[in-house]
Amino acid sequence: MIRSLLAMLLTVGACKPTTAPPPPAAAPVRQTTPAPSAPAKPAERLKVKVLASVPHDTKAYTQGLVWSDGMLYESAGQYRQSSLRQVDPKTGKVLRSVPVPQKYFAEGLALVGDQLIQLTWQEGTAFVYDLATFSTRNELPYSGEGWGLCWDGKRLVMSDGSDRLTFRDPATFATTGGVNVALDGRPVERLNELECVDGAVYANVWQTDEIVRIDPGTGRVTAVIDASGLLNWKEAIQAEVLNGIAYKPETKTFLITGKNWPKMFEVVFE
Ligand SMILES: [Ca+2]
Question: 149 CA to middle of ligand 1, Å?
Fold first, then answer.
């Protein structure tokens, strides 16, 4: 029995090919270590194309600008002059204005549902207003400076004058994350007024005529928009810096202005 089994195994063994089968055609060499990351695509360089202009209150030291349902909402700064305004975008006329208490310097503005949230510069207080009545509903504390604010549908995005964007819960104002902003690897400081648009964040860069478009997932600046030359020299003498971006989803256009500017501009970036 054992002998016959052995004989059978030997026979099977003898049937095996004596040489190994040829290797399959050589497969392309796969890198086992990650390739060096490709250099990030350089930021786009865009310009502003003006479609229309309307008057803007030169008394408004614009710190926040928001579009909603055919109306503009504006936060104006400076101590003893700060206010929350509703502005007719067709005429620039201020339809409503409520003063902010004198000890506060109002800053960025965002609309969350039926509430407007207004930052203050160094006072660590965000005012929450009822959109319909402009009455103050709440005050939310935070630490650090307040500059720009926008709402991306899920979270507030806030700037503080540095290269940092902080994400916040709209109900509690608690920090939920953040990102540092860089253009071609270099930090972009002095991020000011913000606008959240389709997953991107647009930011004025304080004391420049530039607006940057930021990927808030990585902090990378994906576009630099040159918004210089909007005012003529006579207008520019009286005006402070460019600040204020609002997006009109109906027309996919932007409204931009500046602190104490005599005009607002409806524009596209291209
Ligand atoms: Ca804005």
Answer: 7
Looking at residue 22, its pLDDT comes to: 47
The domains located in the chain, with CATH, are 41-269 (2.130.10.10)
- Any idea which residue has 């052995």 for tokens? 6
pTM of this structure: 0.85
Asked if 128 and 141 count as a contact pair (C-beta separation under 8 A), the reply is no
156-201 per-position pLDDT tens digit: 999 999 999 999 999 999 999 999 999 999 999 999 999 999 999 9
d(Cα 247, Cα 60) in Å, to the nearest integer?
19
CA of 112 to the centre of ligand 1 (A): 12
What is the 3 CA–ligand 1 centroid distance (Å)? 91
- Ligand 1 centroid to 108 CA: how many Å? 7
